[in-house]
Amino acid sequence: MKKRILIAEDESIIRMDLKMMLQDHGYEVVGEAGDGDRAVELAFELKPDLVLMDIKMPKINGLQASTIIGQQLDLPVLLITAYSQKEFVEKSKQDNIVGYLVKPISESSLMPAVSVALHQAENAKKLKKSIRTAQDEIQKRKLIEQAKGLLMEKEKLSEQEAYKLLRNQSMSRQLTMELLAQEIISKYAD
Ligand SMILES: [Mg+2]
């Protein structure tokens, strides 16, 4: 599937140029914005894979737009900047800013930057997902431990007996261990 890119750049000639270069390389340009407000609006509406964002734009600037997009949508942004703003960009530590390009932008600088940015974003997404899975797993184990502890205490069971009871009930009632644990915890909570 084609990667979907949103371009935010107030100079229409540059915007068109970027669009053509991206399309020539098989990317889909899903939206074009000429100011920061519109960039945010389109990012919400289109949820692209990547936003190419000029910094100096009317209304809210590209950095402010990137911050909003990062906080609310967690979309990667590749910044476009004039040479004079280079250091400013280097200092910006917004998580979702995956890189920057200095104008004038040539095809040979744009294409690798876009490809790396998309790749990084993909990896970051995977990483976040695996962290979430790990956190869920820890949470689940905590619940099961807690339920087991309650059964041991209230029902005077050994650890093994408590665990066995949990496992048997989970199977016979076709409940996940987690749900069963929650049920037991709330039962003894009253
Ligand atoms: Mg500009």
TrEMBL record:
Domain ANTAR positions: 124-185
Annotated GO biological process: phosphorelay signal transduction system
Segment forming the signal sequence: none
4-aspartylphosphate modification, residue list: D54
Keywords, in A-Z order: Phosphoprotein, Two-component regulatory system
Domain of life: Bacteria
Any Pfam family matching the protein: Response_reg
Keyword Transport in annotation: no
PROSITE patterns the UniProt entry points to: ANTAR, RESPONSE_REGULATORY
UniProt keyword Phosphoprotein, yes or no: yes
One annotated GO molecular function: RNA binding
Domain Response regulatory: 4-118
Name of protein: Fis family transcriptional regulator
Organism: Domibacillus aminovorans
Lineage, highest ranks first: Bacteria, Bacillati, Bacillota, Bacilli, Bacillales
